[in-house]
Amino acid sequence: MISMAIFPLWWSSFSEEFGRRSIYLISFALFLIFSVLSAISKNITMLIVFRMCAGGASASAHSTGAGSIADLFEVYERGKAMSLFYLGPLLGPLIAPIVGGALTQEIGWQATMWFLAIYGLVVLLMILFFLPETLQRKPEATLPTAETQGLSRMRTMDSAKVKTKNFAKSARHFLIDPLGVLLYLRFPPVLITVLLAAIAFGSLYVVNIAIQQKFSRDPYNFGQLSIGLMYIPSGLGYICGSLFGGRWIDKIMAREARKAGRYDENGKLIYLPEDRMRENAWVMTTIYPLALLMFGWVLRYGLHPVVPCLALFFFGISSMLVFSVATTMLTELIRKRSSSGVAINNFVRNTLSCIGAIVAAPWINAINVGWVFTILCICCLIISYVSIILLRKNATKWRKTMDEALAQ
């Protein structure tokens, strides 16, 4: 989780400079190598190091992938496209326990690493043969001609100074400058949008820990494979939210543009990022916290597994709407660096997810699962409602200020 939070900052920055396709190829080649090294690890230290490296390599897919979506789709159809794209990052953590549990139970833990290596190879080959470059490159500056370019010989000491200076500049460009995308968080629309998605995503990992902990004990006593199957309801919710939520968000955006009478000189609607957050925002940020509340208390009293499955399904639908709205808005708020906006989102949400995954089990043991999700529900409701109100009142003003600052 830590490496998947940090590495997208570099992948997104490099993809804006060198193109999406080259970053996909490099990162998935590294993922393949580190997955093989994980499979043949001789001790736990090797495994942890190589798994962190593999996670960092695979982290390019989300931020760079969202950038590709922004490259390919117009604003009015981007919500639907982003919802479908987001199925990958969400279904992965849900399918993985089922596949991983079955492989570990039947073969051993190394089988999961070999599975990832084979999967990485398949994806790498698909990118190599079927995925074109999506980023539109700017025309390169014309090089000076022979007549205008003066010829002179530089002294050895001066040459060494220039080389040292160029090396330091290159090192800063590749190692330090990508961290500059975090400065976008100083703009309120970006910060609030990221926060909305991050608290929902952090809640998801508390849910995942609760599933592992509570369904393995009385009164359920499920095996690893059965526990893995408990991730299916939220996965079905994500699929439903993806299929219908994206279209709903795009329709809301078009409706708001027509209502405001925003047309360009060609008669086409002018869309604004904040148009995506209307009644859908209240619906999605109300349902998923209440689903968390329901999930916690039905686990507390050990009700029939169908009941927590219902809560997980509604959590999946509503949180999917949050994720797709936030990701799409970020690509539109930071138009010239769309993948960087998603990388910031990844950084904050994965940081919160890491914290949630660490504190969830001791937190549940300290109070009880019902009260844990009650507190989580209240926090999500308050943060979400305040964020929506602030965006509804100030989004246009904040966005204009942000655009002016970025144009300088």
UniProtKB/TrEMBL annotation:
Q: Which GO terms describe its molecular function?
A: polyamine transmembrane transporter activity
Pfam families in alphabetical order: MFS_1 (PF07690)
InterPro entries listed in its UniProt record: MFS, MFS_dom, MFS_trans_sf
Annotated membrane-spanning segments are 22-41, 84-105, 111-131, 190-211, 231-249, 281-299, 305-326, 347-364, 370-391
Entry-linked Gene3D superfamilies:
MFS general substrate transporter like domains
Where does the UniProt annotation locate this protein? Membrane
Major place of localization? membrane
The protein's organism comes out as Fusarium oxysporum f. sp. melonis 26406
Organism taxonomic ancestry: Eukaryota, Fungi, Dikarya, Ascomycota, Pezizomycotina
Q: What GO terms fall under cellular component here?
A: plasma membrane
Give the top-rank taxon of the lineage listed in the UniProt record for this protein: Eukaryota
Q: What are the Major facilitator superfamily (MFS) profile domain coordinates in residue numbering?
A: 1-395
The coiled-coil segments of this chain are: none
Q: In its UniProt record, which GO terms are filed under biological process?
A: intracellular polyamine homeostasis
Bilayer disposition of the protein: Multi-pass membrane protein
Name of the protein this chain belongs to: Major facilitator superfamily (MFS) profile domain-containing protein
Give the keywords, sorted: Glycoprotein, Membrane, Transmembrane, Transmembrane helix, Transport
